[in-house]
Amino acid sequence: MFMEAAASITSGSLIAAEKVEGTNVYNVAGDKLGSVEEIMIDKVSGRAIYAVTSFGGFLGMGDRRHPLPWSTLKYDTQKGGYLVNLDKAKLEAAPHYRDDSQFKWTPEYGRKVDSYYNAPSFRV
After folding, report:
1. Please, which residues bridge with residue 83 across strands?
2. Domain containing residue 48: CATH number
3. Residue 51 scores a pLDDT above 90
4. 1: in domain
5. Where are the alpha helices (DSSP H) in the chain?
6. Which residues, at least 6 apart from 121, have a Cβ–Cβ distance to it below 8 Å?
7. Each residue of 17-45: pLDDT tens digit?
Protein backbone atom coordinates (compact mmCIF):
# COMPACT_ATOMS: atom_id res chain seq x y z
CA MET A 1 0.00 0.00 0.00
CA PHE A 2 2.73 2.49 0.96
CA MET A 3 4.71 1.68 -2.23
CA GLU A 4 1.68 2.46 -4.37
CA ALA A 5 1.09 5.71 -2.49
CA ALA A 6 4.71 6.87 -2.89
CA ALA A 7 4.64 6.13 -6.62
CA SER A 8 1.38 8.00 -7.11
CA ILE A 9 2.40 11.22 -5.35
CA THR A 10 5.64 11.91 -7.21
CA SER A 11 5.69 15.05 -9.31
CA GLY A 12 8.00 17.69 -10.71
CA SER A 13 11.54 16.38 -10.90
CA LEU A 14 10.90 13.57 -8.39
CA ILE A 15 9.93 10.08 -9.50
CA ALA A 16 9.56 6.76 -7.71
CA ALA A 17 12.14 4.14 -8.73
CA GLU A 18 9.39 1.70 -9.67
CA LYS A 19 8.20 4.18 -12.30
CA VAL A 20 11.70 4.51 -13.80
CA GLU A 21 12.16 0.76 -14.14
CA GLY A 22 10.66 -0.24 -17.45
CA THR A 23 10.94 3.27 -18.91
CA ASN A 24 11.98 3.24 -22.56
CA VAL A 25 15.41 4.44 -23.70
CA TYR A 26 15.75 6.11 -27.11
CA ASN A 27 18.66 7.35 -29.17
CA VAL A 28 18.69 10.95 -30.38
CA ALA A 29 17.22 9.84 -33.72
CA GLY A 30 14.13 8.73 -31.79
CA ASP A 31 14.65 4.96 -32.18
CA LYS A 32 13.66 2.89 -29.16
CA LEU A 33 16.77 1.07 -27.96
CA GLY A 34 15.41 -0.75 -24.94
CA SER A 35 14.38 -0.01 -21.38
CA VAL A 36 15.68 0.65 -17.88
CA GLU A 37 15.84 -2.60 -15.89
CA GLU A 38 17.37 -1.38 -12.63
CA ILE A 39 18.71 1.74 -10.97
CA MET A 40 22.03 1.65 -9.10
CA ILE A 41 21.97 4.09 -6.17
CA ASP A 42 24.94 5.28 -4.13
CA LYS A 43 24.32 4.13 -0.55
CA VAL A 44 25.94 7.20 1.00
CA SER A 45 24.59 10.10 -1.10
CA GLY A 46 21.34 8.46 -2.18
CA ARG A 47 21.97 9.63 -5.76
CA ALA A 48 21.10 7.51 -8.80
CA ILE A 49 24.46 6.66 -10.37
CA TYR A 50 23.68 4.10 -13.09
CA ALA A 51 20.68 2.92 -15.05
CA VAL A 52 21.11 -0.74 -15.92
CA THR A 53 19.48 -1.09 -19.28
CA SER A 54 18.40 -3.96 -21.48
CA PHE A 55 18.91 -3.41 -25.18
CA GLY A 56 18.24 -7.00 -26.29
CA GLY A 57 15.29 -6.69 -28.64
CA PHE A 58 16.30 -3.78 -30.86
CA LEU A 59 19.98 -4.62 -31.27
CA GLY A 60 19.75 -8.39 -31.05
CA MET A 61 21.99 -8.53 -28.00
CA GLY A 62 19.95 -11.09 -26.07
CA ASP A 63 20.19 -10.82 -22.33
CA ARG A 64 23.03 -8.30 -22.11
CA ARG A 65 22.74 -5.62 -19.45
CA HIS A 66 24.39 -2.27 -20.10
CA PRO A 67 24.96 0.08 -17.16
CA LEU A 68 24.74 3.68 -18.30
CA PRO A 69 26.00 6.50 -16.11
CA TRP A 70 22.94 8.43 -14.99
CA SER A 71 24.52 11.59 -16.40
CA THR A 72 24.21 10.17 -19.95
CA LEU A 73 20.40 9.97 -19.69
CA LYS A 74 18.21 12.95 -20.47
CA TYR A 75 14.48 12.67 -19.80
CA ASP A 76 12.25 13.64 -22.73
CA THR A 77 8.75 14.54 -21.55
CA GLN A 78 7.28 14.24 -25.05
CA LYS A 79 8.56 10.67 -25.46
CA GLY A 80 7.98 9.76 -21.84
CA GLY A 81 11.41 8.15 -21.84
CA TYR A 82 15.14 8.72 -21.67
CA LEU A 83 17.37 9.87 -24.53
CA VAL A 84 20.98 8.77 -24.90
CA ASN A 85 23.52 9.93 -27.44
CA LEU A 86 24.56 6.43 -28.57
CA ASP A 87 24.73 4.64 -31.87
CA LYS A 88 24.65 0.88 -32.36
CA ALA A 89 28.44 0.49 -32.69
CA LYS A 90 29.17 2.41 -29.48
CA LEU A 91 26.54 0.43 -27.58
CA GLU A 92 27.75 -2.94 -28.87
CA ALA A 93 31.29 -2.17 -27.68
CA ALA A 94 30.15 -0.80 -24.30
CA PRO A 95 30.81 -2.52 -20.97
CA HIS A 96 28.05 -5.03 -20.30
CA TYR A 97 27.29 -8.25 -18.51
CA ARG A 98 24.94 -11.15 -19.08
CA ASP A 99 21.82 -11.68 -17.04
CA ASP A 100 22.68 -15.33 -16.41
CA SER A 101 26.29 -14.79 -15.34
CA GLN A 102 27.73 -14.62 -11.85
CA PHE A 103 28.61 -10.97 -12.42
CA LYS A 104 29.79 -8.93 -9.43
CA TRP A 105 29.86 -5.13 -9.57
CA THR A 106 33.20 -3.70 -8.39
CA PRO A 107 34.50 -0.13 -8.11
CA GLU A 108 36.91 -0.94 -10.96
CA TYR A 109 34.00 -1.98 -13.17
CA GLY A 110 32.20 1.28 -12.35
CA ARG A 111 35.29 3.27 -13.33
CA LYS A 112 35.46 1.30 -16.61
CA VAL A 113 31.84 2.21 -17.37
CA ASP A 114 32.42 5.88 -16.48
CA SER A 115 35.56 6.02 -18.61
CA TYR A 116 33.87 4.41 -21.62
CA TYR A 117 31.09 7.00 -21.63
CA ASN A 118 33.46 9.83 -20.67
CA ALA A 119 31.26 10.46 -17.64
CA PRO A 120 32.52 11.87 -14.36
CA SER A 121 33.13 9.20 -11.77
CA PHE A 122 30.77 9.53 -8.82
CA ARG A 123 33.52 8.81 -6.31
CA VAL A 124 36.63 10.93 -5.99
Report:
1. 26, 74
2. 2.30.30.240
3. yes
4. no
5. 2-9, 17-20, 56-59, 88-92, 107-116
6. 110, 111, 114
7. 888 888 999 998 888 888 999 999 988 98
